[in-house]
Amino acid sequence: MKKTEIDFDVQPMTFKKILVAVDEDDSSSSRKAFCYAVTLAHAYKVPLGIVTILETGDLSVYDSLQPNVLEKERQEMAAAVDAYVQKAQDFGVDDVSRFLGEGKPGKQIVREIIPEFQPDLLVCGSETQDKSSIFIGSQASYMSQNAPCSVIVVR
């Protein structure tokens, strides 16, 4: 009998380290992605990384040149990630790490955070302006195309 591509044994697939990207600008999809990642990390009993990126390109030129404005943004971002870390710990995830960055989220996560944390799964949200769109957002698209690990995009 000729062996076909469908002729294989199903092997359980689990992940050993999960990274979730959260973005308060897309809070609905970020929260869903976070809940999914926390659920997996808890079920698999694996480390969870939580990352958010300050999109400095979203700041006005005036704001980006004022150290106090930029520092306030950084402090707010850190406080938000700390709240996510606490929620994950309260849910029962024992090993939680936080990561902060600045720049384009997709590029920073793929180029800086993933090599540092070395997850085998990245979970991110995707919320587009046009809710009828079949396309995922630009940052989620970038990460799914360029990340060296598996990526799950949650809407």
Describe the structure in your own words.
It is a single chain. The protein is α/β, with parallel strands linked by helices and 155 residues long. The chain has a single domain, classed as Rossmann fold (3-Layer(aba) Sandwich), CATH 3.40.50.620. Helix content is 45%, strand content 18%. The protein is globular, with a radius of gyration of 17 Å. The longest helix is centred in the middle third of the chain and has 25 residues, at 67-91. Helix 4 packs parallel to helix 5. It has a five-stranded parallel sheet with strand order 3-2-1-4-5, sandwiched between helices. The chain has helices spanning 27-44, 61-64, 67-91, 105-117, 138-146; strands at residues 18-21, 48-54, 96-102, 121-125, 150-154.
